[in-house]
Each structure stands twice: as C-alpha cells, then as structure tokens.
Amino acid sequence: MQIGSVSSGYSDPLRSKAAEVFEALAGKQGAEPQGPGGASLASITAARDVLQKYDVTDITPTQFSSMVQELFEAGVINDRDLGQLATIRLELDAEGFDADDSIDLLEFYQDKVEDLARQTSGTADAPAAIRQRLDWIQKFAMVQENPFAVGLNEVV
Predict the structure, then answer these.
(1) What pTM was estimated for this model as a whole?
(2) d(Cα 77, Cα 33) in Å, to the nearest integer?
(3) CA distances, 28 to each of 31, 38, 78, 86, 109 (Å)
(4) Model confidence over 117-147: pLDDT tens digits?
(5) CA separation, residue 17 to residues 29, 36, 37, 153, 154 (Å)
(6) DSSP state of 95
(7) Residue 8: is it exposed, middle or buried by C-beta count within 10 angstroms (0-12/13-18/19+)?
(8) Rounded CA gap, 59 and 53, in Å?
C-alpha cells in the first residue's frame, strides 16, 4: 500500500551509496534483470556471497587475495579491477606484512591517505592510486557491514 501524501518525494537514504557500491563491484550489464547502477542481479548476489565471507577490517593478505580471486572468478570484477586490487596485495607485501597476519585494511589505507596529506602539508590530495585503493576497501567494508543495503530503490 502506498500513501501518496506521506511517501511522495522520499527515497531510500542508502540507495545512492549502495548503488555506487554495487555499480563498482558488478557494473556489467547483460540480459538479466538489472539492479542498482545497471548491475545484474546475479552479479550483485555473487558480490554479496563472496564479501560476506570476509572482513576487510580483520583480514590477512592471503585471505584478501582469495577474496579478490573469488570476485574475479564469479565475474564480479574484470581484469582491470583484478589488477588494481592485486596492487593492494603487492603493497602489503612491500610494507612487510606477513601473509597470515591479520590487518585492518580500512584503517591501513585511511592512515596512509592521512600520512600523505601531512607530508605534503595538506596542500595536495593523496595520490590518486592510493585514494582509489581506499575507495575499494571502503566499498568492500560497506557491503560487508550491511550486505542488503540496497533496499527500496525509491519510494514514489
């Protein structure tokens, strides 16, 4: 039941952010029914299924690699995305993290962005590549925190 005078003009407050997340994670279009951002519902489901098994705030580099590989094999991310996400693992290795030691990737990249801002006296943004890695981790964290964040598309 829809009551026009109450619901008119309201929308789901998570819709735009959730749509952005799923568009980034599953931006392929196909003949299947479409979800937020044009992502196929099968891709959205695959992304949720994979990301529910992991927690980027408490993950080992080995687990991160497995998560990324599962997203790729499920068709959620493409070759370019796989390369970008593989760079995160390479960076963790370069920073000296043991493959089986847990890390909070969200905090790691937030700190990295803040450190770079301090080093440049706040006159420049963090390099685009570092910011992009943080964006990926933030998107993963959002889906992991609330895998069903995509609720009502809009209430009209």
Answers:
(1) 0.69
(2) 18
(3) 10, 7, 9, 20, 27
(4) 777 765 556 688 889 999 999 999 988 888 7
(5) 19, 10, 10, 11, 13
(6) T
(7) exposed
(8) 11
pLDDT tens per residue, range 81-92:
999 999 999 999
The answer to whether the beta carbons of residues 68 and 85 sit under 8 Å apart is: yes
Cβ partners under 8 Å of residue 124, min gap 6: 117
Amino acid at 4: G
Is residue 113 within 8 A of residue 131, CB to CB? The reply is yes
Cα–Cα distance between 147 and 5 in angstroms, integer?
31
* Spatial separation of the C-alpha atoms in residues 142 and 121, rounded to whole Å: 30
List, in sequence order, the alpha helices (H) in the chain.
4-7, 15-25, 41-51, 61-73, 79-94, 105-119, 128-145
